[in-house]
Protein 1
Amino acid sequence: MNLLVYAVCFGVGLLFAIVSAFLGHLFGGHDAHVDIGTGGHAEAGFQDTGMPGLSPFSPTTITAFITAFGGLGLIFSKIEATRNPWISAPLSIVGALIIAVGGGVAVRDGLSQGG
C-alpha cells in the first residue's frame, strides 16, 4: 500500500512538472519586461528588485516536494533497512523538504540575479 502512495505522488508530481513545462513553453508569458519600481514595499508583494518573490507554497515548490517525496519513498521502500513505512515516510518527508527548499532557494537566487 505504501508503494502505491509513493508511486502516485511521484507520478502526479512528475506529470504536473512536465505539463507545466510544456504549457509554459507554448504560452510563454516572460517576453514582456516592465520596470514596476516597487522599491521593495512589502504590501506590493515584490522583493526590493521589483521581481515577484518565490512563495514557499508556490506550485513549483509544492510540485518539487510531492515528486521528491514519492521518489524518495520508492527508493527508501526498496532498501531493507528503511522498508518499514514508519522509517521511509519520515525520511522521505525530510528529503523532500530539503529538495523543495533547495530548489526554491536556487530559483529565488536565479531570479534575483536576473538570470
Note: Helices lie at 2-27, 59-78, 85-112.
Protein 2
Amino acid sequence: MKQLFKHYFKQKVRSWFWKKNAPALILTLLGGLYFLLIALSVGIFADVFLNELAPNQEPTRIFLKYVFIYHLIDILIRFKFQEIAILNPEPYRTLPISKRKLYSFPMVTSHFSFFNLLALIIILPFTITNVWMKMGAFQAIFWWVFLFSVVLMINYLSVTLKLFMRKYTLWGYVLYFVILGYIVFEITGLLNVSDGYASLFLFVIQYPYLLLIPIVLAYLSYHLGVSFLLKNRYDGVSTKKSVKIVSYSFLERFGEVGQYLKIELKFIFRNKKVKAMFISSLFFLGVGMNFYLQFSPSSFKNVFCGIFVISMFSQNFSQIIFSGISSHFDGFTTMSINVRTWLFSKYLISVITSTLSLVISTLYFLFDPRIPLFNLALYFFVIGVIVPFLMYLSLFNYKPLNVVENKSFDFKALDWKSFIIFLIILGFPFCIYGICYLFGNVYMLYYILAGIGIIGLLTNGYWMKQIALKFQSQKHKLAQGFRQD
C-alpha cells in the first residue's frame, strides 16, 4: 500500500497541471485553511451560539441535532467535491499485488479527505469544552468514537455511491434530491428526525458496549466499497446493448449552424457525464421552492435563485466547451472548422437550455405572479452576459474532462473554481442591488440587468468573434494542458 501511495503522489506532482498552476494550488490551500478556521471557530464557540438559539435547552442535545443535519449536508457536498484517488490497474495486473489491496486504495486514501478533517475540527473543540470539562474524559472519548465512526461511515458510503452512480445515474440524482428535500424539511421543522438522532446518541453512550454498533457499521461500509470495486472492476468493457440512434435531421435546414447543433446534441445525450449535467439541471429547477415559499420581492435571494434555476446547465456547459473535447482536441485543431460558427452553436445550446428552464420555471407564478417577470429579466442577463463570459473563461481551463468516463458527480474540470466563478457572477448583480437599495428602488435592478443582457445579445457577434480570436492564441496551451494532465 505504501508503494501505491508513492505512485499516486508521483502521478500528481509530475502532471503538467500541478506544475503550471502553482498559484491556483496555493489559493486552494489558503481556501482550505480559511474553511478550517471557520470550522474551528464554530467548534470552539458552538455553546455560545447554541445558548442564543435555544437558551432553555441542553447545548449538547442541540449540538447533536445540528450535527445530524451537518452529516446530511456533508453527504451532498461529498457527492460533488470529494475526489476519488484512482490508479490505473493495468500496469499492476502482472505484478505480485493482490487485487483486494489494489482496489481498496481509493477507500484507504479517502481517510485523508478534507471533509473528514473538517468534521473532526468541528467536533473536537466542542467535546473538549462541553463534554470533557463537564462529564469527564471517558464520556468525551465515547463522543469521539461515536461521531467519528459516523463520519467515516459517511466517507466510505460517499465513495461507494459515487462509484455506484457510474451505472445508475438517475437513481443517484433521485437519492441526491431526496436528501436535499429532507434537509429542507428538517430545517423548516416539517420533520424532526434529528431529535431522534440526538436521543439515540445519548442512549448509546450510556452503555459503552453499544459503541461497537457505529464502529461495525463503519467497518462494513468500508468493505462494501472495496467489494463493489472488486465486483465491477471490468465494468463497461464487455457490455453490449442495443442503442437507438437519433439523427436530428430536422436541424439540417439551418445550414452549417444546424450541422454543429446536431453534433452538440449528440455530444450531450451520448456522453453520460454531460447528460448527467443536463438531468441535474432539470432537478435543480425545484430548488426555487425553497426560496419562493416565503416570497419577498425586495430580497436579493430572488436574483440568486433566478440565475441558479435558469442557468444551471448553461453555466456548467459553457465552462467545458474545450475541456469536453480534450480527448480529441489535437485532431480538432487540425480540422477545417469555422471556429466562430462552432462557438455560436455552443452558445445556442446554452440559450436553448436556459429558455427551457425559463419556461418550466414559469410555474412559480403559483407562488407569486411577479416571479416569472423577475426571471425573464434575469434570463436576458444570463444569455447576454453570463454565458459569453463563461465561454471566454473556458479558454483558460487547461484541465481535461473525460466525458466518456461513466462517472456521475465526478466532474474533474468542474471543481471548486466553478463555484468561485459563480460567486463572481453573483457579485455584479449584488453590487447593483446595493446601489438600487440605497436609492430606495430595488426593482430597478431587474431593469438594469435586463438592459445589460439585451445589449449583450445585440453585440453577441462581436463577443463570439473575440472568443474565436482568443482561441487561436490559446489553443496550443490548451492542447499542452489536455495532453499532459
Note: The longest helix spans residues 137-164.
Protein 3
Amino acid sequence: MQSFRSLRVWEKAHKLTLDIYTSSKTFPREEMYGLTSQMRRSSASVGMNIAEGCCRKGNVEMGRFLQIAMAVEVKRMLSFLMQKVKAVN
C-alpha cells in the first residue's frame, strides 16, 4: 500500500479542489445548491477516489479507482462548461 499523499496526481487533485472551493465563492447565490455544490462535490471526489485506490490491494483495484476519478473529473468539467453557458445567456 502506497501513500496517496506522495502521488503527484493526488496533489494536483487536492489543489484543484481548493481552487474550486475558493473560486466558487463568487458564483451566483442561486447556484449554491445546484452547480456550485456539484462542482465542489465532484472535485473533492477525484482526490478521494485516488486516495481510496491507494488503500486497496493490487494495481487492478487502484486502476479501477483511477478510472472512477477520471469519470468524476469529466463530470466536473461538464459542470464548469454549463456554468460558462449560463453566464453567456
Note: Helices lie at 8-23, 35-54, 58-88.
Protein 4
Amino acid sequence: MSANPLSIPRSGDNSVSIQGTKQAVIGVVRQHQSKLTSKDDPEEPSGLAWHGHVWRGKNAAAPNREDVQLNCENSPETRDESRHIFEGMVGSSLTLRRTLDQVITVAPTDATVLIQGETGTGKELIALAVHNLSPRRDRQFVRFNCAAIPLGLLESELFGHEKGAFTGAVARKIGRFELANKGTLFLDEIGDVPLELQAKLLRVLQEREFERLGSNQTQQVNVRLVAATHRDLKEMVSDGRFRSDLYFRLNIFPVSVPPLRERGEDVRLLVKFFAEDCVRRINRRVKTIPADTMRVLSEYDWPGNVRELQNFIERAVILSPGSELRAPLEDLDWSKQLAQPQTLAQAECGHILKALKESGWVVGGPMGAARKLGLKRTTLIGKMRRLGLFRSTEAAFPLPAERQEQSYPTKAVI
C-alpha cells in the first residue's frame, strides 16, 4: 500500500500536498569517499559526499523553519531531503555535521572510539556508522549493553566460560570478544563495568588476549572496540570509580553526540521523518502537520532527545484518526525549560505565561492576568503581541523571533 501524503501548511497559506518519502537512506558507504575541506570558515566541517548523497557543505543555505516542506516523492525536495540522512542519522545542523565529520575521520582507522552523549541521542547509530565505514564492515558488529547484565554474569558474557566454571555452567560458552573477532565490538554503557572487571578489560584492549572463566588457556583476539556512555568518565576517575589507565585507553578518539536541544533546526526534519514512517507502518490517514504544532515541537527542549521525540510522534500519529496530526502537546513538560530562562526576554515571557495560565487566559478584570502582574490591560496586551504569546491546545509557548512581529495572541479573553 502506498504511503499517505503529508503536508505542513505555511503561515497564511494553503497546505501543499506531498507524498511520503521512500525508505530512509541507511546504506553503507563502502567505496567512494570524498572530503571537500572548507578553508574559508574553520567553524564549518568539510562537505562530505558519498554515492551521490551529499552532506550539506558551508555554502548550502540553512533551512528556513517556515518554508521547509515535507518530501514529495521524485521531486527535487525529496532528493535534497535525502542529503540530511546519513547512516540512519537525520539532520543538517552544524553540531551534528561536526560529529559525523569525526566519524568519517576515525572510521577507516582501527582506533578505539569512545562515544559520549546523553541517553537517547543515537550513540549506537554512531557506533554502527564507525563499523560500516571501516575495513571491518564485512565482519561481525556485536552489540553489548554493560548495564543490562547482572554484575555476576558480566565477565562470563564478555569473555566466555568453560563447562563447570561455576554453578549452572553446563557447557562452554563463547563471550562477546570472541564473537566479535576480526570485527567490531560495541560496548554500550561502559561506565557501568565494575572496577574488578576493568583490569581484565584493559588487558584485552592492550594485549588482545584473555582467558575464559575456568580456563588457563589464553585466547588471542583481534577486535576493534567502540564504547559508549552517558556518564562523565573523568568525574568517575576522580572519584575512584573508574580506572584512569582504562579511561586513557578508551579515550583515544572521543566522539561527542550533541543533545537534541543543541540541534534545534533538526527537529523539523526528525518530526517529518518519524511521522512519515509511522503513517506507513500503522496505516493512518494523516496528511498534514499544523504549522503551530511543528513550531511548538521545534521550540521544546526534548530532555529525552531523539528517542523521546520519536515516541511522541508515534503516539501523535496513533491519536490522529483524521488527516491532520493531533499531537498531544499538553503532555510536554515545560516546567524545567521555563524555570531556567536564558535571557531576560525569556524570563519575562515565562512570568507572563504563568499569569495567563493561572487566570485561564483572561487578561482584563479583577481576576485577569494584568491585575496579577500589576500591569495595565493595554500594557499586557502589547507585551503579548511583542512576545507572540498565544494558546494552542492547552500548550502555550512564545513564537520564535522571526514571527514575533506578525503574530497576535489568540483565544485570550481581552
Note: The chain has three domains: 34-93+260-331, 99-256, 335-403.
